[in-house]
Write a structure and sequence with these properties.
single chain, alpha/beta, 7-stranded mixed β-sheet, 5-stranded antiparallel β-sheet, 12 helices, 17 strands
Length: about 400
């Protein structure tokens, strides 16, 4: 499976070494700036060379309506294409979706998959073994084919599945981006055969699918929202605190943020112009409380790419994988996932810090708000109010709380 992280692929060289490709078409809701920048070229090349192809979308959804919007994002991009390796819903964004209940995930996946099926396509769900075992356990998932990610010598998931993603460090001729590493999978079901026989490619049965090689397309020039700092109070690189955020750059409905802190990584001309942490959410000036110089000075944010390891990221930032794991509440340092946002500690950061008369605490696995409050001689209500926490039972390992 490939995405823009793999940069420009030489599909002529790759063709004889693969049985098919599942191409990321985009991430999140139905907005053109959230289309994968290499999608159009990758799809055209696979069609030109007759390579079986499917698509996947990296989900940000936190409601049924947003899941349906993500399905429409996929449908906009695959309209008119023969999708003979299925459409796959990628559920793994723990930083953004980790607070959702099992029932909520089931409802969102059902809404996404039903929307795709109604349009005439085969659909399945992707997740890692941890999610399959602990979160995506509703019977609704038995209705769809599973794609399981586990970077190990064997797949230990006990349920039924059709694809096993066994490594993010595969080497295939023609794929030189991302350090030459690519996600690789073992496929146990002949999806192209089943999909074609059941008319689930998305094309009508009488549609003519090109069988002869077509002229090689030129790499497209991806369209991006026009960056603009003009008239904006904040700029790329500012670390801000915010009391509310938004699912898209244009949405009117506000969301309650998980932590309410992050780095502005993009500024565009839109009602919600500031992108937080490369894709966590969008905010506007009214959402932002203040710049937080303490966190800017003491942590940075890194978004995991295909092929990354925690030890490799740690080496890059001059820290240890144990420190990153502790800060982000990661129990198994071998389990990190593409798109995951990690807080990276700097040498100046300490586990519990007092600065400018403010006290901060990093939540550990097993902590409760009342227990933290007791430790610091305050109340859980005071901590909740200070950090904008609506539900005092909903705190996460790795979350940084201001205590006083």
């Amino acid at each position: 499976d490939v995405s823009s992280w793999n940069e420009t692929i030489d599909w002529n060289s790759a063709k004889d070494h693969i049985g098919g490709a599942i191409i990321r078409c985009g991430y999140g809701g139905n907005m053109t700036h959230q289309d994968d920048q290499q999608y159009a070229r990758n799809m055209a090349e696979c069609e030109r060379l007759g390579i079986p192809r499917g698509v996947y979308l990296f989900s940000y959804a936190r409601s049924v309506d947003e899941a349906i919007d993500e399905a429409n994002h996929v449908l906009r991009l695959i309209k008119g294409h023969e999708i003979n390796f299925g459409v796959w819903y990628d559920l793994e964004y723990s930083d953004y979706q980790g607070h959702l209940s099992k029932d909520q995930f089931a409802a969102q996946a059902k809404a996404f998959c039903e929307t795709i099926e109604k349009a005439g396509y085969f659909v399945g769900v992707y997740a890692n073994t941890s999610w399959w075992n602990t979160i995506l356990t509703d019977k609704v998932f038995d209705r769809y084919s599973r794609w399981v990610a586990q970077y190990y010598s064997s797949c230990t998931y006990q349920g039924t599945y059709g694809i096993w993603q066994y490594s993010s460090s595969g080497v295939i001729p023609g794929l030189n981006g991302n350090g030459g590493r690519v996600d690789v999978n073992k496929v146990y079901i002949d999806y192209p055969k089943i999909i074609k026989e059941n008319g689930l490619t998305g094309l009508p049965s009488n549609a003519v699918v090109p069988s002869k090689p077509q002229p090689k397309p030129e790499p497209p020039k991806p369209s991006k929202p026009k960056p603009s700092n003009s008239g904006k109070k904040h700029k790329v690189g500012d670390y801000v605190t915010f009391k509310s955020c938004h699912y898209t750059s244009t949405s009117k409905d506000s969301l309650k943020p998980l932590t309410g802190k992050g780095t502005i990584t993009s500024v565009i001309d839109a009602p919600n112009p500031y992108l937080i942490n490369g894709g966590d959410c969008w905010v506007n000036d009214a959402d932002i409380d203040s710049k937080d110089t303490y966190y800017k000075d003491n942590t940075s944010t890194y978004v995991v790419k295909s092929g990354d390891t925690l030890s490799g990221i740690a080496q890059k930032y001059g820290t240890t994988y144990q420190a990153i794991a502790k800060l982000n509440g990661i129990d198994n340092p071998n389990l990190i996932f593409v798109g995951q946002s990690l807080k990276i500690p700097t040498a100046a950061q300490k586990e519990n810090t007092t600065t400018n008369n403010a006290v901060y605490y990093t939540v550990k696995w097993g902590d409760t708000l009342s227990g933290i409050a007791q430790k610091y001689g305050t109340t859980y209500q005071a901590i909740a109010k200070l950090n904008g926490i609506a539900n005092p039972n909903n705190i996460m390992a790795g979350q940084v709380l201001r205590i006083k």
